[in-house]
């Protein structure tokens, strides 16, 4: 029995390529003969498909031109051949009859009827062609002037956590707010005084998401320990666990009208839970990377998710399926925020902040200016959109126009490193007059509008010519 000589994969592939080359090298330079009839048909079909509208306009223009010349010749003949005793109104009536006949032709612009003056009658015949072929002028795009908003200022810094503060939620009564941090503790703070009211321990890793129910005395939390907990605030203890996530849970949202909780995280899914029975109603799969943000609303789409795979998905809650996927962002989407009064939402990514209109996710405009990773956003009923970056920058925008009316660097706590300047989460209180941010220097900062500011002291630096040049 002969021993088969072994060759490397490289040698075998090379030999296969060589055989293929030798087989087809003899006729590789011979192209099939061109059928002129087919080529003409191809070009005629292509030109008719691409430029058929232009051809029709040229035909109409030529027909109108020929008809206009005939009308002008016949008009001149009528004027000079008629007896001097014939009255001018008779000629005008004849001309009107001709115009009525010609008005049946379809034209781009309606033909202006001539006046009784005979000189105008003669001139109109020659000018009708140019009038009919004129296009209507395009409407010049208008740039709306932004609404004036008072500048915001820092008025309180709260310390108490022993790690990065990663999440914040305000209760519906606007009396207190909760924060979660890397120290695995959830802390409840008095909103008016900033004093600590309560500390809740139970998570064994970083707390990444919080939500307070508007209809029940419940606080929901999620973290990097894959746990989703329901806290009864009457007894300050955990009463339910929601098991199912395969990795860290980064974000959560409560449905505003039904007892449904939505959580999402590093396992690339969003899970819909029945708040009472702890049942996993839907597992929304489709993202290919970490789901960093989820929001819910009563109207469709009821669930919106943003992911590190650079996409935003709109979900049908009843069917548990994706309605559409928005792929406009080029980098990871870490934050999504719903407008409290308008049927719109915004998404944040290092490339841009984008605004969208529900329910189909129609793109509205870009908000450019953040030169860092945007971790969080918040918007109040007055149309003030705030975004927080990984480098500690805060940008304040006018929602309607996208005008950036204020930006500043958040003050770092004394003793912390310069790199600990990131803003991780933010929210407005229920009145929209106070902004709460949680940051990497282990503090919670509260901002409010400057009461002493006015349009005279802080005018709008609005230059539409620059904006126009940038947009158009």
From TrEMBL:
WD repeats lie at residues 158-199, 200-241, 242-283, 284-325, 367-407. Coiled coil: none annotated. GO terms for biological process: mRNA splicing, via spliceosome. InterPro entries: Prp46/PLRG1-like, WD40/YVTN_repeat-like_dom_sf, WD40_PAC1, WD40_repeat_CS, WD40_repeat_dom_sf, WD40_rpt. It comes from the Eukaryota. GO terms for cellular component: catalytic step 2 spliceosome; precatalytic spliceosome; Prp19 complex. Keywords: Repeat, WD repeat. PROSITE patterns: WD_REPEATS_1 (PS00678), WD_REPEATS_2 (PS50082), WD_REPEATS_REGION (PS50294). Belongs to the WD repeat PRL1/PRL2 family. Involved in pre-mRNA splicing as component of the spliceosome. Component of the PRP19-CDC5L complex that forms an integral part of the spliceosome and is required for activating pre-mRNA splicing. As a component of the minor spliceosome, involved in the splicing of U12-type introns in pre-mRNAs. Identified in the spliceosome C complex. Component of the PRP19-CDC5L splicing complex composed of a core complex comprising a homotetramer of PRPF19, CDC5L, PLRG1 and BCAS2, and at least three less stably associated proteins CTNNBL1, CWC15 and HSPA8. Interacts (via its WD40 repeat domain) directly with CDC5L (via its C-terminal); the interaction is required for mRNA splicing but not for spliceosome assembly. Component of the minor spliceosome, which splices U12-type introns. Within this complex, interacts with CRIPT. Also interacts directly in the complex with BCAS2 and PRPF19. This is Pleiotropic regulator 1. It comes from Corethrella appendiculata.
